[in-house]
Amino acid sequence: MKITQSPSSRIGEIDFDKLVFGTQFTDHMLVCTYRNGKWEEPEIKPYGPMMFSPSMHTLHYGQALFEGLKAYYMDNGAIGIFRPDMNAKRLNHSARRMFMPEFPEDMFVEGVTQLVEIDKAWVPKKSGHSLYLRPFMFGSSEFVAARPSEEFIFCIIMSPVGPYYAGDVKVKVEETYTRSATGGVGSTKCAGNYGGAFFATDQAKKEGYTQVIWTDHKNHELIEESGTMNVGFVIDDTFITPPLSDRILAGITRDSILSLLRSSDIVAKVEERPIKVEEVVAAAKEGRLKEAFGMGTAAVISQISVIGFRGTDYSISTPPDGYAMKIKKALNDIRMGTAEDKNNWMVTL
Ligand code: COI
Fold first, then answer.
1. Which atom of ligand 1 is nearest to the CA of 228?
2. Which of 81, 227, 275, 299 could form a disulfide with 347 if both were Cys (CB 3.0 to 4.6 A apart)?
3. Ligand 1 centre and the CA of 87: distance in Å?
4. What are the residues whose beta carbons fall under 8 Å from the beta carbon of 212, sequence distance 6 or more?
5. 169-336: CATH class
């Protein structure tokens, strides 16, 4: 891997006590070009603007996808990256569906590791803070013919981050707009899945909510995701989350939480099964909906305090020592190195 060091660092400009998610970037980035049917040698170089022609493919046809993962400053002073192999696999799942070239998984993990190593001073030390890595890939051919791009750029940039949401979130059950449909691209992290969600989210925000709960495209009966996150409910003593499908993103936080719940006694039962809006609303009315939360890389776990459905707001408790916070702590302990990493999730530098 070619490495060009930045002649100076911008780290002195960063107020690590006032980080705003994804707005400030470290000194270096990784760039790799796909040309003539193969990936060229990746390069780590100073973070900075890229030059493109207005005919660049991705601007017109959106063959673009991204990933998100985090590096942590651990209790013993080591730096650990959480499950980068899973991101490499998911990137390639997205790439296949978006008709883009797969990026070699070992090169992905190696690139991530080397980039974090070179900018390791940027990993925030404060609890609940981390270095967010944003790998992404886009079609970079310069033509507007509506056929697949032939050249692609894979890039990783990194941003020191604090908590994603300021507190708990209020969600509205979305029954008009749809995030994904069977046979579509909902299980990928393609850019359009996020761009396509902004309008519905803005409508919900105007009604006083933070995010939407996405429901199925056919009847809007089944709960699918919450905002940019997977969603889970604790009803009585059971954790329930919708099963993966081609409409739902295979969240790495979701997977990690399921694994932790199955090997602990935080909840009595764990179920991955379709869950209807009416089941959640009935449980809320009967006082059996103990907690609800979103699960994602950016926010980790985000407690849901209100679910709005057809004009009625159902309040849900967000106890500081409840299920969501116990799960968050269990995950955090692994990330900090204060609990045993039984599944070898941390890649330490
Ligand atoms: C998530 O963690 O929920 C994400 O997908 C990242 C977000 C910034 C789009």
1. 3
2. 81
3. 13
4. 171, 172, 173, 174, 177, 197, 200, 201, 204, 226, 227
5. alpha beta
pTM of the model: 0.97
Whether the CB of 296 sits within 6 Å of ligand 1: yes
CATH number belonging to the domain at 2-161, selected among 3.40.50.2300, 3.30.470.10, 3.30.110.170, 3.10.420.10 = 3.30.470.10
Nearest CA residue ID for atom 6, ligand 1: 298
- pLDDT values of the chain reduced to their tens digit, one per residue, 349 residues: 999 999 999 999 999 999 999 999 999 999 999 999 999 999 999 999 999 999 999 999 999 999 999 999 999 999 999 999 999 999 999 999 999 999 999 999 999 999 999 999 999 999 889 999 999 999 999 999 999 999 999 999 999 999 887 788 999 999 999 999 999 999 999 999 999 999 999 999 999 999 999 999 999 999 999 999 999 999 999 999 999 999 999 999 999 999 999 999 999 999 999 999 999 999 999 999 999 999 999 989 999 999 999 999 999 999 999 999 999 999 999 999 999 999 999 999 9
Indicate if ligand 1 lies below 6 Å from the C-beta of 136: no
Under 8 Å CB-to-CB from 344, ≥6 apart: which residues? none
Extents of the domains making up the chain:
2-161, 169-336
How far apart are alpha carbons 338 and 110 in whole angstroms? 25
> Could you tell me the two tokens for 55?
């005919």
Which of 230, 253, 297 to probe ligand 1 with, by most ligand atoms within 8 A of CB? 297
- Cα–Cα distance, 3 to 42 (Å, whole number): 9
